[in-house]
Specification:
Structural class: mainly alpha
Number of helices: 23
Order of helices and strands: HHHHHHHHHHHHHHHHHHHHEHEEEHEHEE
Helix content: 55-70%
Radius of gyration: 26 Å
């Protein structure tokens, strides 16, 4: 901010701006500290996102502006997700270098967007500066939100874009006009291009505004001018996401339908029921099951039971019910209903952006109680703040790099702190709650050996297990950034029912190198045929006489990594 402008600001605004900046810096530092202690190698989804950013960077380095395939390669870089984060991360590589951790830099940027957007939402809703100080700090004390800030997944940018979208909507709603509608439409569009689930958090406020505009005003007429602006917002948003829908829509639709087919037996020709398992009654049962999980299981874990209880108390004490508060409540409620209605594998991550309106409403309560100047309420708030900060340290930095006393685990578990256990795989690299200490899984060792023996010639490597972290994705990612001349493959085709394997001798013998692992092979196989094919593939490598064991190295889990090479006859 310009120094002359700071001098011209009223003292209170000047002081609040500095306080907000210092709080943001502390949050950013906490993420940098977490990352500095994390020694994990990107794995599974995190490796895929990093590889997608690098692939977009390579495309942007060699533009073909007259070829539609070039644009399609960018917008359809992921079979499921839109490309905004990948494009932003790729552009950062031009500034910081192609080897830079631009995903972290992008996350730091989105943390600032989330921080200041929530500050505005709280200030506009409760018209006091104290709520604007509390809300953006409170949201990062939620375990589910802080976890997203240091992950290479799309959750941090998605949370930030939802916050920016809600902030812009509240700003727009004060006096809808053409220029504001265009800006809001672009923001909604960019949020959608960040992650597929973001639009569900805007539906509620839009429906509330449409409903209010359709009511007769004091002059007996409906607010057609407001409805017109809502239409412009929707139109601009649709135009913003149109390139992705056109260029990547068929690919994404096909992939989404394949996931639904695997999970819910939905017909591949159309989204219709193909068996009695897809009757409306079953769909309703699934809907209420998802809704109850999101509401009664996921939210308390995302927020922590203590802060979830504070939010419920804030809802009880929310009077007077202003329009902005209704927007925030509608965002939460409609998002939960919409997420529950869509037929998709259940994950808590899909509703984490609901923490934005929740933090604003909770901050409003905390600020009101503090400003009453009653010692009883202030003491309760100090205790809540202390427990929440301790929870932040406990969840994010324990047992490594900090090792808190055993009694703290007992105390926190008795308070319901189980966020760590709810991750799909608590020790998935780059998706853990706490940083992972340094450990050598021999991935770099195996690539170095292959490169040395290959002597610069192009070669091929098959990764047989799909364990953590020995699977295809970290090898693929490291080969990309190291620029090794190695083509990495896997015999496993991921499905929601388990990995599918089909043995093909011609494909098997084409690969010159194999990585095998003793013990646990990782994700389960989908059926008996795949299990038999996998065993056949392992036997082919170990017993056909066509491949020889080059070396064998111990792994941190007590098993061994085996490196095989095709023998030259």
């Amino acid at each position: 901010m310009n120094s002359d402008l700071l001098i011209s600001l009223p003292p209170r605004i000047h002081k609040d701006s500095i306080a907000l900046l210092l709080l943001l810096v502390l949050i950013e530092i906490s993420v940098l500290v977490w990352t500095a202690y994390d020694h994990s190698i990107p794995c599974w989804d995190t490796a895929a996102h990093k590889a997608n950013s690098y692939y977009v960077f390579e495309l942007l380095k060699h533009p073909h502006l007259r070829q539609i395939h070039w644009y399609q390669s960018i917008f359809a870089v992921s079979q499921l997700y839109p490309p905004f984060f990948y494009i932003l991360s790729a552009f950062l590589k031009f500034i910081l270098g192609e080897m830079a951790n631009t995903e972290l830099v992008a996350n730091l940027f989105f943390i600032a967007v989330l921080f200041y957007s929530l500050c505005y939402i709280a200030k506009a809703t409760y018209t006091n500066a104290f709520a604007a100080l509390i809300a953006p700090v409170l949201v990062f004390l939620y375990p589910g939100v802080f976890w997203s800030t240091h992950s290479a997944l799309l959750d941090c940018p998605a949370n930030a874009m939802v916050a920016l979208g809600l902030a812009c909507f509240i700003w727009w709603s004060q006096s809808p006009q053409l220029s504001k509608s265009i800006i809001l439409g672009i923001i909604f569009g960019l949020a959608t291009l960040t992650k597929n689930n973001t639009p569900i958090f805007f539906i509620g406020p839009l429906l509330v505004d449409i409903f209010c505009a359709c009511q007769k005003q004091s002059n007996g007429k409906r607010d057609c001018a407001r409805l017109k602006q809502i239409f412009i917002v929707t139109l601009v948003g649709a135009i913003t996401i149109a390139p992705w829908l056109i260029l990547a829509g068929p690919t994404v639709s096909k992939f989404v339908l394949s996931i639904q087919t695997q999970n819910f037996h939905i017909s591949s020709s159309s989204v219709t029921a193909t068996s009695t398992s897809n009757t409306p009654f079953v769909w309703l049962a699934e809907f209420f099951s998802h809704l109850s999980l999101f509401t009664f299981v996921d939210l308390p874990l995302i927020l922590s039971p203590l802060l979830c209880g504070c939010f419920l108390f804030a809802l009880i004490k929310i009077k007077p019910l202003t329009k902005n508060k209704i927007y925030l409540i509608a965002s939460i409620v409609v998002a939960l209903i919409t997420a529950s209605a869509f037929r998709w594998p259940h994950q808590f991550r899909y509703i984490v952006p609901a923490t934005i309106p929740i933090a604003a409403i909770s901050a409003g309560l905390f600020s009101q109680l503090w400003l009453t100047q009653k010692n009883k309420w202030r003491m309760i708030l100090i205790i809540i703040a202390f427990i929440s900060f301790f929870q932040f340290i406990y969840e994010g930095f324990n047992p490594y790099p900090l090792c808190l006393p055993a009694w703290t685990n007992i105390v926190m578990q008795s308070l319901g702190e189980q966020f760590r256990a709810r991750l799909p795989n608590p020790q998935t690299p780059s998706s853990t709650v706490n940083p992972l200490p340094d450990s050598d899984w021999k991935i770099v060792w195996s690539l170095d050996n292959i490169e040395t023996i290959a002597a610069g010639k192009a070669t091929s490597l098959m990764i047989m297990p799909n364990a953590n972290p020995i699977n295809c994705s970290p090898f693929y990612y490291l080969v990309k950034i190291r620029k090794d001349g190695i083509e990495v493959g896997s015999p496993r085709q991921h499905t929601e029912l388990g990995d599918k394997v089909v043995f093909d001798r011609n494909q098997a013998i084409w690969y010159q190198w194999y990585i095998l692992k003793t013990g646990d092979q990782g994700l389960p196989l989908c059926d008996a045929k795949s299990s038999a094919a996998y065993d056949k593939w392992l036997n082919f490598v170990c017993k056909s006489g066509l491949y020889g064991l080059i070396d064998k190295q111990p792994l941190p889990d007590g098993n061994s990594l085996e490196l095989y090479k095709r023998l030259e006859h």
